[in-house]
What we know:
Chain A is α/β, with parallel strands linked by helices. The first copy, chain A, has helices at 19-31, 43-50, 75-81, 86-95, 108-119, 154-172, 193-204, 231-256, 260-279, 306-321, 324-331; strands at 5-10, 35-41, 60-64, 101-104, 133-135, 140-144, 178-183, 209-215, 226-228, 288-290, 296-299. In chain A, the strands form two sheets. In chain A, strands 3-2-1-4-11-10 form a six-stranded mixed β-sheet, sandwiched between helices. A five-stranded mixed β-sheet of chain A has the order 5-6-9-7-8, sandwiched between helices.
Amino acid sequence: MKKKTVVALDAMGGDNAPLEIVKGAVEAVNERDDIIVHLFGDEEQVRNELKKYTYPRDQIRLTHTGEVISVEESPAVAIKKKKDSSMVAGILSVKNGDCDAFISGGSSGAVLVGGQVLVGKEKGIKRAPLAPIIPNEKGVSLLIDCGANVDAKPEHLVQFAQMGSIYMKNIIGVENPRVGIVNIGAEETKGNALVKETFPLLKACPGINFIGSVEARDITKGIADVIVTEAFVGNVVLKMMEGVASTLISLIKEGMMSSTRSKIGALLVKPALKDTLKLFDATEYGGAPLLGLKGLVVKIHGNATSKETKHAIFQCVTFKEQKVNEKIREHLGIPAAPAAGE
Amino acid sequence: MKKKTVVALDAMGGDNAPLEIVKGAVEAVNERDDIIVHLFGDEEQVRNELKKYTYPRDQIRLTHTGEVISVEESPAVAIKKKKDSSMVAGILSVKNGDCDAFISGGSSGAVLVGGQVLVGKEKGIKRAPLAPIIPNEKGVSLLIDCGANVDAKPEHLVQFAQMGSIYMKNIIGVENPRVGIVNIGAEETKGNALVKETFPLLKACPGINFIGSVEARDITKGIADVIVTEAFVGNVVLKMMEGVASTLISLIKEGMMSSTRSKIGALLVKPALKDTLKLFDATEYGGAPLLGLKGLVVKIHGNATSKETKHAIFQCVTFKEQKVNEKIREHLGIPAAPAAGE
């Protein structure tokens, strides 16, 4: 029998926890029998949620934790001090090999610090980037890095390109993923000091399909599969997408409600628009992995629903089955030291 | 009688030149009698366009130029070599005082280089930022800097905040404009090295209304009037707005055409949506000024229409009437040396 993938899930992380998180866990195990979800959180609250559903009992585990890390806390302090938090206990279950991956919708900072400090970077990995999947007109791209470690060096960006390519090929199934670097013009001579220094390194890097500079305007056009950038710019790209989309959609909804005529029209276009806007919703692809660690740590949105949670769980299974970490080690020439818990 | 404002206009700059540019000039002088537009471009082509309209003859002037600077050329080389281009001749007319301002929809790089090299920065101005008006849910903000000079220093950003505040107050009419710095979190401790160094300087800067960090997600919510950032990030912000908006609108249009039902709905919502999307169109506010120069140089979009051209012309009149350059000099404590042509 195939060994089940065990996914640790922070039942207390995010605005909709534990409700949507537990629901996502139940949906995942009801859909697939090759998964065990290990919930970390307040036993009473989690059991109250679990009660609502029927599911194969042997596929959900629960460890009680008495603390929760909030988004207001200093991530470094919280990870150090709150040993009995759902976040720390969940991450440690990956470090010690009990679980294959950890997912949280809680404090991004704490997920980043916890992943790096508790699980640790693979030997040879200079920086662990946070790499969300972002939608575009034709499908999705990987935006790497959107994490909290800004002011990257050229060699970091080269590793991002390598790890991102492996991820897109093995998790999303894109053959020979096109790698682009975010820049302010298409020419090699354009850019800031970091981009200018990184450009020739990416050009010379074997095993990646580097297509050159990508202007921000073309990111949502689907011009590249792996969008390499340092974390400050990556954060701006990601949050501009969210902000502009939310502003435009609310303006459009308002506009449709402005007259009787347009209200009737709105009723008629609504189903079609809903399908369309779904295309611009990346939650089907799960969460953002923190790449380059000795185990898998995945950040889902603070407002993640059961759907995003479920897809993040599936994403962890694919990550394990496709041996993404082994491929990253291989590609980057990292000695095959045992990963966490192996 | 009030002295007319003389605006030099690059009749050959942009994808729709000379047609839309000349049309914008005609519309401007037909609407206001306090403006003279001085066109620079190919005499025959421009006269052929002018022929189509009636307008007060004494409000449009024309100087023939035999060359055009294309977007493919190296800006620095083109500005140096193409003395008979519409761009160089137009910019020089500001330098020598014949015209009060210069507008072009041609090569951004050439406008930036031409402005800085031919007109020159005000004494004491460290860097001349390109500052477009961007739309938000409640109105507009000024995004400063989106130019070609990346890797700014903290003292550059402080001057951007000062100049941007003067612009928003005097040109757009915002009292006590709120100044924010683009950052990856709201806290003062977040950010890259540049933002962390700039933050306390902005806090301590007299005469501006600094409100702290602005996350990219909140830019289109209208959280600040002056959005300060270095040019690389500014470029990403601007182009993400364009890209996400264009992708979403095309997805929505496609969605509306997907069924008979939605097609009928689309007909009904169309007029209301058109009005709404107009809110998200900043062309009514003219072009992006290059601030801190001894004269006014304004960049309009490469695909600028007559409407944007006309509004850019009006913007130049307001700039002159409000004595924006004098106010910048005063605010920054720059000795009142005569500006170009004064």
